[in-house]
What we know:
Elements: H1 2-12, H2 14-29, E1 36-37, H3 50-61, E2 66-74, H4 82-95, E3 101-106, E4 111-116, E5 119-124, H5 134-146, E6 162-168, H6 174-195, E7 199-204, H7 206-240, H8 243-266, E8 270-271, H9 278-302, H10 307-334, H11 342-363, H12 365-372, H13 383-397, H14 399-414, E9 421-422, H15 435-446, E10 451-458, H16 468-482, E11 487-491, H17 493-503, H18 518-531, E12 548-555, H19 560-577, H20 588-622, H21 625-630, H22 633-649, E13 652-653, H23 657-684, H24 689-716, H25 724-755
Parallel strand pairs: 1-8, 9-13
Antiparallel strand pairs: 2-6, 2-7, 3-6, 4-5, 10-12, 11-12
Helix pairs in contact: 1-10, 2-8, 2-12, 4-6, 6-7, 7-8, 7-9, 7-24, 8-9, 8-11, 8-12, 9-10, 9-11, 9-24, 10-11, 10-20, 10-23, 13-24, 14-22, 14-25, 16-17, 16-19, 19-20, 20-23, 22-23, 22-25, 23-24, 23-25, 24-25
Amino acid sequence: xxxxxxxxxxxxxxxxxxxxxxxxxxxxxxxxxxxxxxxxxxxxxxxxxxxxxxxxxxxxxxxxxxxxxxxxxxxxxxxxxxxxxxxxxxxxxxxxxxxxxxxxxxxxxxxxxxxxxxxxxxxxxxxxxxxxxxxxxxxxxxxxxxxxxxxxxxxxxxxxxxxxxxxxxxxxxxxxxxxxxxxxxxxxxxxxxxxxxxxxxxxxxxxxxxxxxxxxxxxxxxxxxxxxxxxxxxxxxxxxxxxxxxxxxxxxxxxxxxxxxxxxxxxxxxxxxxxxxxxxxxxxxxxxxxxxxxxxxxxxxxxxxxxxxxxxxxxxxxxxxxxxxxxxxxxxxxxxxxxxxxxxxxxxxxxxxxxxxxxxxxxxxxxxxxxxxxxxxxxxxxxxxxxxxxxxxxxxxxxxxxxxxxxxxxxxxxxxxxxxxxxxxxxxxxxxxxxxxxxxxxxxxxxxxxxxxxxxxxxxxxxxxxxxxxxxxxxxxxxxxxxxxxxxxxxxxxxxxxxxxxxxxxxxxxxxxxxxxxxxxxxxxxxxxxxxxxxxxxxxxxxxxxxxxxxxxxxxxxxxxxxxxxxxxxxxxxxxxxxxxxxxxxxxxxxxxxxxxxxxxxxxxxxxxxxxxxxxxxxxxxxxxxxxxxxxxxxxxxxxxxxxxxxxxxxxxxxxxxxxxxxxxxxxxxxxxxxxxxxxxxxxxxxxxxxxxxxxxxxxxxxxxxxxxxxxxxxxxxxxxxxxxxxxxxxxxxxxxxxxxxxxxxxxxxxxxxxxxxxx
Length: 760
């Protein structure tokens, strides 16, 4: 009775409700201007991430790894021509003028050392390329392709592609700096292409990836949101067959989205590609509540009820299920706070807030709007209701067959789960529509890999890096890595010492080996450092105290699983051959390689907690342990089926998969709650189980089908994103929602009839 008095008050003061809701929404919406977007991939990692802490320590010891790599590919097939070398030389000089650049390495400014009588000459490999003779060019080619330090890194082994690597020192807030850097680089490359039309240029690197993150965030927020909005409007009109009721739903969605995003702005939220879908997810989920209410109103009016009477009845029968589904959905999304990746915290918190906003607006604004709008409905049984009456007859008559066949399908799909590999690939986060991905693919295929495993190898004492025993261990570790099939290049300090030893013995190839005398080795190193030109010091290779050196291993297009396995093999080798060096690899690629595993482990705890809470809620609302536990089946099984199908079709999942169960469990439980609440109501009215199932399909079948269709299409829009985390999440959630409808329509009714034998 209190609920009916509340509804009557809403309808009586409907204009006041609309005006008040509008004022509140507008006040909160003003916070949207404070929303910011970041292009920093580091937001994916929590502050206590051990791999990130190790990476930061490595960069503090040596130098930062913010870099851009530009590949130069002459169309005539070789970089060893005067024109190509001149283009590389020009680009190298221009790279020094890029904002925030701290070091530039290229084929032309490679610090080549050689003996000249009794002197050690250290100079750039190429100077004034246009004046070089054919003999000079052939000499440059031989030196470059034989140089362990640059072959496979700054020049391809086949000599067809060369690279210019630029390192940057970014300010504390890197977002604007990254935009400034990439814009400047694009202008430099535009000029280079104009001056050298027969040479192709490709740009990649982690700084460029920063910008790609920004571009994909902007693209998703600007394009996907209006697409989802239009799809929801179109689908609602088609499925509800009522333009005015769709208008009311759209108004509620606008209020929900504006309130959610405004609240996020007032809280100073920073969005990234991972959580840029907050408004879309809120929009898609929020419509479910409105559709249940509107469908019941239209159904009542078609039975001949007055509009306001139909609204009262709709709110009365839907208020409790809508409240429960909103709470369970919010719990599911709030469990994302257990994620090891902070952007998922933002995603979970603000979708949960949006869901609760949808509940409030559905129970206040929506009935007021439906009462104001001149809704019309023919007083006949709708085709949708008639269809679900026939569908209920089919399910009841074929319940044994359906139970067996659905169970068989579930078993077959579960078998596909072991096929799934937990793995990510940073470059493949972006699809081919982004220039970053296209350029990265070219660089990986034609010049060098981008995934790096980095080690800080300690000598144990100050000045110890010239100790022969230490150098031999470093060299042995580097040579072991060079034998691994997935490795394209290894940069080790021992290579410099072998080259210097050869130089100091008249460039005799027989002396390309490590020096035996530690004092002599220290003198070689000092002489070499004093001879290096500006910007070519060894600070990125050795620490200040000369007590440790940096070894960098480059792999070709490795997945995170491959990186973890390669490092594990390295740990085994170090344990057996150089125990003092035993350590986990570092580097940005390594941090990413462990992210999905860490996220899955953390989300497992959060998801279990959410499931336990939701399970207790379902048992409490249904006042039956048996029904409450039974309700979990159509909620757990769809996610399991989705991952099984994904195992057959795709075979790998990354960071998106770690949050899917938490996301979908809170969503798919909605249909189960609505179905069971109507079923139990029919049972309390004395109907036997089969008739209660038939009554339930008649009351909510069309609404469940409508919400599933809209939710599926809405999340399917994410599949059009160019960012893997978004499209994988969208596809997995869509598949799970469809399987959830199958479970609610085919599995749940048959189980209810099978176990609920009272009066059946």
